[in-house]
Automatic annotation (TrEMBL):
Component of the 7-subunit TFIIH core complex. In NER, TFIIH acts by opening DNA around the lesion to allow the excision of the damaged oligonucleotide and its replacement by a new DNA fragment. In transcription, TFIIH has an essential role in transcription initiation. When the pre-initiation complex (PIC) has been established, TFIIH is required for promoter opening and promoter escape. SUPFAM superfamilies: TFB5-like (SSF142897). This is General transcription and DNA repair factor IIH subunit TFB5. Keywords: DNA damage, DNA repair, Nucleus, Transcription, Transcription regulation. Gene3D superfamilies: TFB5-like. The lineage of its organism: Eukaryota, Viridiplantae, Streptophyta, Embryophyta, Tracheophyta. It comes from Kalanchoe fedtschenkoi (Lavender scallops).
Length: 70
């Protein structure tokens, strides 16, 4: 018998994958979204968290970007 799970495949570089893994580990057990870590650059996650991951990455990038003073 075949077991199939619907999900979202994320392909990214190693630092971004570590950020997503860290985001997942900071959540309570009932809200963890990583289904399977395929390798260092590919993650299989629940399909409902795509927008949440995008917004967390966007917020992280905004916090870590340098704006030259006027």
């Amino acid at each position: 018998m075949v077991n199939a799970i619907k999900g979202l495949l994320i392909s990214c570089d190693i630092p971004m994958a570590q950020f997503i893994i860290n985001l997942n580990s900071s959540l309570p057990a009932s809200q963890k979204f990583i289904i399977y870590k395929l390798d260092n650059t590919h993650l299989f996650v629940q399909p409902t968290v795509g927008e949440m991951i995008r917004s967390a990455i966007s917020e992280f990038r905004d916090q870590n970007s340098y704006e030259k003073p006027a």
